[in-house]
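R.M. (postdoc): so does anyone remember the format we settled on? I'll just put the structure tokens first.
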């Protein structure tokens, strides 16, 4: 098993391995309306393993975060292009929520992105997803803009970002 990054009670926070991907994909299907191809999960794991993290509870994967690195305009008015971490997806199975796992996954994912010398990190979140917005606020993300009708069902997204 990969090295333990952090322990939250009985939960082990560690890097994702290829064998964990079916469980990660299953959590994604159960918890979020935004789904991706199996290949996309594998490609993010290959591209940025430092920031593809899972929560392991008694040898069962119960949460994950996956990120990528992008180059683009800063969300903090820095001039020129910057290197940005993008949280593509983060989720915890419902029965394991409220125990600090989501926060631990975010903090470890952010460390992974920082290891790649990124200037900032950002994500999109449904405007109605108060639990997630609270989590991101708690760890220092700021709402930068509203992306109108960003999701397929027409809901707006909030773009939230944090400078390193
Ligand atoms: C968002 C999510 C990942 C949070 O995971 P979690 O393990 O329950 O979160 P934590 O226990 O680490 O909570 C951290 C903070 O998040 C916020 N939060 C978590 N659950 C909350 C709730 N039910 N109501 C309000 N705020 C909540 C709080 O600020 C909390 O800090 P606190 O405990 O000091 O109050 C989880 O709810 C989830 O998987 N949701 C479905 C998938 C999803 O929406 N992903 C985000 C897509 S952008």
């Amino acid at each position: 098993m990969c090295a333990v990054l952090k322990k939250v009670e009985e939960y082990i926070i560690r890097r994702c391995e290829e064998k964990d991907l079916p469980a990660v994909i299953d959590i994604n299907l159960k918890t979020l309306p935004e789904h991706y191809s199996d290949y996309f999960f594998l490609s993010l794991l290959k591209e940025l393993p430092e920031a593809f993290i899972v929560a392991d509870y008694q040898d069962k994967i119960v949460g994950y975060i996956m990120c990528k690195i992008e180059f683009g305009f800063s969300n903090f008015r820095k001039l020129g292009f910057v290197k940005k971490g993008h949280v593509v997806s983060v989720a915890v199975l419902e029965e394991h929520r409220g125990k600090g796992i989501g926060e631990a996954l975010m903090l470890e994912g952010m460390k992974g992105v920082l290891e790649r010398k990124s200037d900032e990190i950002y994500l999109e979140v449904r405007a109605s997803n108060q639990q997630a917005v609270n989590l991101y606020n708690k760890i220092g993300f700021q709402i930068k803009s509203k992306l109108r009708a960003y999701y397929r069902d027409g809901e707006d997204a909030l773009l939230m970002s944090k400078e390193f």
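R.M.: ...and that's the designed sequence above, right after the tokens. Also worth knowing: The mean pLDDT is 96. Strands lie at 4-8, 11-15, 53-57, 60-73, 81-92, 120-126, 142-147, 157-163.
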